[in-house]
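Q: Hi! First time doing this. I have a protein sequence and I read that you can turn it into a structure. Is that right? Here it is:
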Amino acid sequence: MVSMMAKIEDGKVMIYDERLANRFNIRGYGKLIDERYLELHPVEALYLSEEKKLKIVDEGNILESDSLFDKFSTLDNRFEQRFIVYRDLRRRGYKINCFHELRSKDIDYYLKPKREDQKDIFAVSINEREEFSVEKILSFLDSLDPLIEELWAGVVDEEGDITYYRIYDVKPKGSLKDVGNIGCRGVLLKHLIIVKDREIGKELFKQGFYGNLTDGELTLSLLEALHLSDIGVLEVYSREKKLEYEDLLTIAKSYQQDFEIRYKVYKDLKEKGLCVKTGYKFGTHFRAYERDPNRYHAEYLLDAVTESFKSNWSNISRGIRLAHSVRKLYVLAVVSKKIRYIGMERIRP
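A: Yes, that's right. Below is the predicted 3D structure, encoded as C-alpha coordinates:
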Protein backbone atom coordinates (compact mmCIF):
# COMPACT_ATOMS: atom_id res chain seq x y z
CA MET A 1 0.00 0.00 0.00
CA VAL A 2 1.29 3.45 -0.96
CA SER A 3 1.93 5.74 2.01
CA MET A 4 0.24 9.08 1.20
CA MET A 5 2.87 11.18 2.88
CA ALA A 6 5.41 13.86 2.08
CA LYS A 7 8.24 15.14 4.24
CA ILE A 8 9.54 18.63 4.86
CA GLU A 9 13.34 18.58 4.60
CA ASP A 10 15.59 21.63 4.38
CA GLY A 11 12.61 23.81 3.57
CA LYS A 12 11.45 21.56 0.72
CA VAL A 13 8.41 19.29 0.58
CA MET A 14 9.47 15.90 -0.80
CA ILE A 15 7.69 12.69 -1.77
CA TYR A 16 10.14 9.79 -1.79
CA ASP A 17 7.73 7.00 -2.70
CA GLU A 18 8.28 6.55 -6.43
CA ARG A 19 4.73 5.39 -7.26
CA LEU A 20 3.15 8.23 -5.30
CA ALA A 21 5.57 10.75 -6.82
CA ASN A 22 4.66 9.70 -10.35
CA ARG A 23 0.96 9.61 -9.55
CA PHE A 24 0.93 13.24 -8.37
CA ASN A 25 3.25 14.39 -11.15
CA ILE A 26 0.93 12.95 -13.81
CA ARG A 27 -1.86 15.00 -12.23
CA GLY A 28 0.20 18.16 -12.68
CA TYR A 29 1.84 18.51 -9.28
CA GLY A 30 5.46 19.17 -8.41
CA LYS A 31 8.81 18.58 -10.08
CA LEU A 32 10.29 15.13 -10.59
CA ILE A 33 13.86 14.62 -9.42
CA ASP A 34 15.86 11.76 -10.93
CA GLU A 35 12.55 10.36 -12.23
CA ARG A 36 11.98 8.95 -8.74
CA TYR A 37 11.27 11.70 -6.23
CA LEU A 38 8.86 14.59 -6.32
CA GLU A 39 9.40 18.07 -4.93
CA LEU A 40 6.17 19.90 -4.18
CA HIS A 41 5.80 23.66 -4.07
CA PRO A 42 4.49 24.79 -0.65
CA VAL A 43 1.18 25.91 -2.17
CA GLU A 44 0.74 22.45 -3.70
CA ALA A 45 1.54 20.77 -0.39
CA LEU A 46 -1.01 22.86 1.52
CA TYR A 47 -3.63 22.38 -1.18
CA LEU A 48 -3.22 18.58 -1.14
CA SER A 49 -3.31 18.63 2.65
CA GLU A 50 -6.55 20.64 2.67
CA GLU A 51 -8.05 18.27 0.12
CA LYS A 52 -7.12 15.30 2.37
CA LYS A 53 -5.04 13.79 -0.44
CA LEU A 54 -1.69 13.98 1.29
CA LYS A 55 -0.24 14.13 4.78
CA ILE A 56 2.77 16.36 5.40
CA VAL A 57 5.34 15.30 8.00
CA ASP A 58 7.78 17.68 9.66
CA GLU A 59 10.30 16.38 12.20
CA GLY A 60 8.22 13.24 12.71
CA ASN A 61 4.93 15.10 13.24
CA ILE A 62 2.00 15.25 10.84
CA LEU A 63 1.08 18.92 10.37
CA GLU A 64 -2.54 19.97 9.99
CA SER A 65 -3.42 22.55 7.33
CA ASP A 66 -3.41 25.53 9.69
CA SER A 67 0.04 24.60 10.99
CA LEU A 68 1.30 24.18 7.44
CA PHE A 69 -0.06 27.59 6.52
CA ASP A 70 1.72 29.20 9.48
CA LYS A 71 4.99 27.43 8.69
CA PHE A 72 5.02 28.35 5.00
CA SER A 73 3.95 31.93 5.73
CA THR A 74 7.00 32.45 7.95
CA LEU A 75 9.21 31.35 5.05
CA ASP A 76 7.47 33.44 2.39
CA ASN A 77 5.74 36.75 3.16
CA ARG A 78 3.75 36.43 -0.07
CA PHE A 79 2.59 32.89 0.64
CA GLU A 80 -0.97 33.90 1.58
CA GLN A 81 -1.90 35.43 -1.78
CA ARG A 82 0.07 32.81 -3.67
CA PHE A 83 -1.89 30.03 -2.00
CA ILE A 84 -5.30 31.69 -2.34
CA VAL A 85 -4.77 32.24 -6.06
CA TYR A 86 -3.36 28.74 -6.58
CA ARG A 87 -6.26 27.07 -4.79
CA ASP A 88 -8.83 29.10 -6.71
CA LEU A 89 -7.31 28.33 -10.10
CA ARG A 90 -6.97 24.63 -9.24
CA ARG A 91 -10.65 24.50 -8.30
CA ARG A 92 -11.47 26.16 -11.60
CA GLY A 93 -9.89 23.20 -13.34
CA TYR A 94 -6.51 24.59 -14.36
CA LYS A 95 -3.37 22.48 -14.35
CA ILE A 96 -0.69 24.65 -12.77
CA ASN A 97 3.07 24.40 -13.04
CA CYS A 98 4.79 26.02 -10.06
CA PHE A 99 8.28 25.09 -11.30
CA HIS A 100 8.18 26.82 -14.68
CA GLU A 101 11.12 28.59 -16.35
CA LEU A 102 10.01 32.13 -15.37
CA ARG A 103 10.01 31.66 -11.58
CA SER A 104 13.18 33.75 -11.37
CA LYS A 105 11.20 36.66 -12.87
CA ASP A 106 8.77 36.60 -9.91
CA ILE A 107 6.02 35.11 -12.06
CA ASP A 108 4.23 32.59 -9.87
CA TYR A 109 2.48 30.10 -12.12
CA TYR A 110 2.20 28.68 -15.59
CA LEU A 111 -1.37 27.63 -16.44
CA LYS A 112 -2.08 25.12 -19.15
CA PRO A 113 -4.73 26.63 -21.45
CA LYS A 114 -8.18 25.06 -21.37
CA ARG A 115 -8.97 25.87 -25.01
CA GLU A 116 -6.98 25.32 -28.18
CA ASP A 117 -7.33 28.98 -29.20
CA GLN A 118 -6.06 30.21 -25.81
CA LYS A 119 -2.52 31.45 -25.29
CA ASP A 120 -0.20 30.01 -22.67
CA ILE A 121 -0.95 31.75 -19.38
CA PHE A 122 1.51 33.04 -16.80
CA ALA A 123 0.01 34.34 -13.57
CA VAL A 124 1.18 36.53 -10.71
CA SER A 125 -0.42 36.61 -7.27
CA ILE A 126 -0.86 40.02 -5.67
CA ASN A 127 -2.21 41.36 -2.39
CA GLU A 128 -4.37 44.47 -2.80
CA ARG A 129 -2.13 46.27 -0.29
CA GLU A 130 0.95 45.75 -2.45
CA GLU A 131 2.35 48.68 -4.38
CA PHE A 132 1.44 48.86 -8.04
CA SER A 133 4.62 49.43 -10.05
CA VAL A 134 4.70 50.08 -13.79
CA GLU A 135 8.33 48.97 -13.86
CA LYS A 136 7.35 45.61 -12.37
CA ILE A 137 4.48 45.11 -14.81
CA LEU A 138 6.77 45.88 -17.75
CA SER A 139 9.33 43.37 -16.49
CA PHE A 140 6.63 40.70 -16.40
CA LEU A 141 5.49 41.51 -19.93
CA ASP A 142 9.04 41.62 -21.25
CA SER A 143 9.54 38.06 -20.00
CA LEU A 144 6.75 36.75 -22.25
CA ASP A 145 6.30 36.16 -25.96
CA PRO A 146 3.09 38.13 -26.68
CA LEU A 147 2.32 35.99 -29.73
CA ILE A 148 1.84 32.83 -27.68
CA GLU A 149 1.81 33.89 -24.02
CA GLU A 150 -0.24 36.24 -21.85
CA LEU A 151 -0.09 37.66 -18.35
CA TRP A 152 -2.77 37.35 -15.68
CA ALA A 153 -2.74 39.08 -12.30
CA GLY A 154 -4.82 37.64 -9.47
CA VAL A 155 -5.35 40.37 -6.87
CA VAL A 156 -6.48 39.16 -3.44
CA ASP A 157 -8.48 41.68 -1.41
CA GLU A 158 -8.69 41.96 2.38
CA GLU A 159 -11.66 39.56 2.46
CA GLY A 160 -9.83 36.90 0.48
CA ASP A 161 -11.77 37.44 -2.76
CA ILE A 162 -9.80 37.42 -6.01
CA THR A 163 -10.11 39.73 -9.00
CA TYR A 164 -8.30 38.62 -12.13
CA TYR A 165 -6.88 40.96 -14.74
CA ARG A 166 -5.36 40.33 -18.14
CA ILE A 167 -2.47 42.69 -18.85
CA TYR A 168 -1.03 43.12 -22.32
CA ASP A 169 0.57 45.48 -24.83
CA VAL A 170 -1.90 47.48 -26.92
CA LYS A 171 -1.19 49.10 -30.27
CA PRO A 172 -3.77 51.87 -30.82
CA LYS A 173 -4.37 52.68 -34.47
CA GLY A 174 -7.02 55.05 -35.73
CA SER A 175 -8.51 55.86 -39.11
CA LEU A 176 -8.82 59.63 -38.66
CA LYS A 177 -6.83 62.25 -40.55
CA ASP A 178 -5.61 65.39 -38.83
CA VAL A 179 -6.51 68.86 -40.09
CA GLY A 180 -4.60 70.33 -42.99
CA ASN A 181 -4.49 73.42 -45.21
CA ILE A 182 -5.80 75.61 -42.38
CA GLY A 183 -4.11 78.56 -40.75
CA CYS A 184 -5.65 80.46 -37.86
CA ARG A 185 -5.07 82.65 -34.86
CA GLY A 186 -6.02 81.96 -31.25
CA VAL A 187 -6.08 84.13 -28.15
CA LEU A 188 -4.79 82.86 -24.82
CA LEU A 189 -7.19 83.36 -21.93
CA LYS A 190 -5.44 81.94 -18.88
CA HIS A 191 -5.41 78.17 -19.65
CA LEU A 192 -7.75 78.19 -22.64
CA ILE A 193 -7.27 79.34 -26.23
CA ILE A 194 -10.11 80.92 -28.15
CA VAL A 195 -10.38 80.83 -31.95
CA LYS A 196 -12.69 83.70 -32.80
CA ASP A 197 -12.88 83.10 -36.55
CA ARG A 198 -16.17 81.21 -36.75
CA GLU A 199 -15.61 79.53 -40.10
CA ILE A 200 -12.14 78.27 -39.22
CA GLY A 201 -13.35 77.24 -35.78
CA LYS A 202 -16.07 75.14 -37.37
CA GLU A 203 -13.57 73.51 -39.70
CA LEU A 204 -11.22 72.59 -36.85
CA PHE A 205 -14.16 71.20 -34.92
CA LYS A 206 -15.54 69.30 -37.91
CA GLN A 207 -12.31 68.01 -39.47
CA GLY A 208 -10.20 67.27 -36.42
CA PHE A 209 -12.80 67.15 -33.62
CA TYR A 210 -10.86 69.84 -31.78
CA GLY A 211 -12.17 71.83 -28.85
CA ASN A 212 -15.62 72.88 -27.80
CA LEU A 213 -17.74 74.99 -30.15
CA THR A 214 -19.90 77.54 -28.28
CA ASP A 215 -21.72 80.50 -29.85
CA GLY A 216 -19.58 80.14 -32.96
CA GLU A 217 -16.27 80.40 -31.09
CA LEU A 218 -13.95 77.45 -30.65
CA THR A 219 -12.38 76.88 -27.24
CA LEU A 220 -9.20 74.79 -27.25
CA SER A 221 -7.30 73.19 -24.41
CA LEU A 222 -3.58 73.87 -24.01
CA LEU A 223 -2.87 70.33 -25.25
CA GLU A 224 -4.85 70.90 -28.42
CA ALA A 225 -3.40 74.35 -28.96
CA LEU A 226 0.17 73.16 -28.53
CA HIS A 227 -0.38 70.35 -31.02
CA LEU A 228 -2.02 72.65 -33.58
CA SER A 229 0.84 75.08 -33.11
CA ASP A 230 3.34 72.26 -33.56
CA ILE A 231 1.83 71.20 -36.91
CA GLY A 232 1.67 74.80 -38.17
CA VAL A 233 -2.09 75.29 -38.03
CA LEU A 234 -2.43 77.68 -35.09
CA GLU A 235 -0.68 80.83 -33.91
CA VAL A 236 -1.40 81.79 -30.31
CA TYR A 237 -1.35 85.38 -29.08
CA SER A 238 -1.44 86.93 -25.64
CA ARG A 239 -2.03 90.69 -25.45
CA GLU A 240 -1.19 90.95 -29.17
CA LYS A 241 2.14 89.19 -28.63
CA LYS A 242 2.70 85.98 -30.52
CA LEU A 243 3.66 83.06 -28.30
CA GLU A 244 6.27 80.66 -29.60
CA TYR A 245 5.97 76.92 -29.05
CA GLU A 246 8.30 76.99 -26.03
CA ASP A 247 6.37 79.91 -24.51
CA LEU A 248 3.13 77.98 -24.76
CA LEU A 249 4.74 74.87 -23.31
CA THR A 250 6.09 76.85 -20.35
CA ILE A 251 2.65 78.32 -19.66
CA ALA A 252 1.03 74.88 -19.87
CA LYS A 253 3.57 73.36 -17.46
CA SER A 254 2.88 76.15 -14.96
CA TYR A 255 -0.71 74.91 -14.71
CA GLN A 256 0.04 71.20 -14.87
CA GLN A 257 3.34 69.70 -13.72
CA ASP A 258 2.94 66.51 -15.77
CA PHE A 259 1.81 68.39 -18.88
CA GLU A 260 4.83 67.37 -20.94
CA ILE A 261 4.21 63.66 -20.29
CA ARG A 262 0.54 64.03 -21.20
CA TYR A 263 1.38 65.98 -24.33
CA LYS A 264 3.77 63.30 -25.58
CA VAL A 265 0.96 60.75 -25.30
CA TYR A 266 -1.58 63.11 -26.86
CA LYS A 267 0.72 63.85 -29.81
CA ASP A 268 1.58 60.18 -30.33
CA LEU A 269 -2.09 59.17 -30.40
CA LYS A 270 -2.93 61.95 -32.84
CA GLU A 271 -0.11 60.80 -35.11
CA LYS A 272 -1.56 57.28 -34.93
CA GLY A 273 -4.85 58.58 -36.31
CA LEU A 274 -6.93 58.75 -33.13
CA CYS A 275 -9.21 61.47 -31.82
CA VAL A 276 -8.09 62.37 -28.30
CA LYS A 277 -10.34 64.16 -25.82
CA THR A 278 -10.21 64.79 -22.10
CA GLY A 279 -11.03 61.81 -19.90
CA TYR A 280 -11.93 63.95 -16.90
CA LYS A 281 -15.53 62.70 -16.66
CA PHE A 282 -14.18 59.16 -16.43
CA GLY A 283 -11.40 59.99 -13.98
CA THR A 284 -8.58 59.52 -16.52
CA HIS A 285 -6.31 61.80 -18.52
CA PHE A 286 -7.78 60.95 -21.93
CA ARG A 287 -10.44 59.12 -23.82
CA ALA A 288 -9.48 58.12 -27.33
CA TYR A 289 -11.40 57.16 -30.45
CA GLU A 290 -10.12 55.10 -33.35
CA ARG A 291 -13.16 56.12 -35.41
CA ASP A 292 -15.46 59.12 -35.88
CA PRO A 293 -16.45 60.25 -32.36
CA ASN A 294 -19.75 61.56 -33.69
CA ARG A 295 -20.75 58.03 -34.64
CA TYR A 296 -18.83 55.73 -32.32
CA HIS A 297 -17.87 55.51 -28.67
CA ALA A 298 -14.28 55.82 -27.47
CA GLU A 299 -12.34 52.57 -27.36
CA TYR A 300 -9.85 53.64 -24.70
CA LEU A 301 -9.55 55.44 -21.38
CA LEU A 302 -5.90 56.34 -20.82
CA ASP A 303 -3.59 57.66 -18.13
CA ALA A 304 -0.17 59.00 -19.12
CA VAL A 305 2.61 57.83 -16.77
CA THR A 306 6.36 57.27 -16.67
CA GLU A 307 8.19 53.98 -16.12
CA SER A 308 8.79 55.01 -12.49
CA PHE A 309 5.05 55.44 -11.81
CA LYS A 310 3.79 53.81 -8.63
CA SER A 311 0.31 53.68 -7.19
CA ASN A 312 -1.87 51.24 -5.28
CA TRP A 313 -3.97 48.46 -6.73
CA SER A 314 -7.21 50.08 -5.50
CA ASN A 315 -6.64 53.04 -7.84
CA ILE A 316 -5.80 50.72 -10.74
CA SER A 317 -8.87 48.60 -10.01
CA ARG A 318 -11.04 51.71 -10.05
CA GLY A 319 -9.80 52.70 -13.50
CA ILE A 320 -10.24 49.20 -14.93
CA ARG A 321 -13.73 48.72 -13.50
CA LEU A 322 -14.97 52.12 -14.66
CA ALA A 323 -13.60 51.55 -18.16
CA HIS A 324 -15.27 48.13 -18.25
CA SER A 325 -18.60 49.61 -17.13
CA VAL A 326 -18.64 51.96 -20.14
CA ARG A 327 -17.28 49.33 -22.55
CA LYS A 328 -13.82 50.78 -22.90
CA LEU A 329 -10.31 49.48 -22.28
CA TYR A 330 -8.23 51.01 -19.51
CA VAL A 331 -4.72 51.77 -20.77
CA LEU A 332 -1.57 53.05 -19.13
CA ALA A 333 0.45 55.03 -21.67
CA VAL A 334 4.02 54.62 -20.41
CA VAL A 335 6.32 57.40 -21.58
CA SER A 336 9.98 56.52 -22.08
CA LYS A 337 12.15 56.73 -25.20
CA LYS A 338 9.07 55.33 -26.90
CA ILE A 339 5.51 55.27 -25.65
CA ARG A 340 4.20 51.87 -24.66
CA TYR A 341 0.49 51.24 -24.20
CA ILE A 342 -0.44 48.68 -21.55
CA GLY A 343 -4.04 47.47 -21.57
CA MET A 344 -5.65 46.08 -18.43
CA GLU A 345 -9.01 44.34 -18.33
CA ARG A 346 -10.95 42.27 -15.84
CA ILE A 347 -11.44 38.61 -16.76
CA ARG A 348 -13.19 35.54 -15.45
CA PRO A 349 -10.76 32.58 -15.68
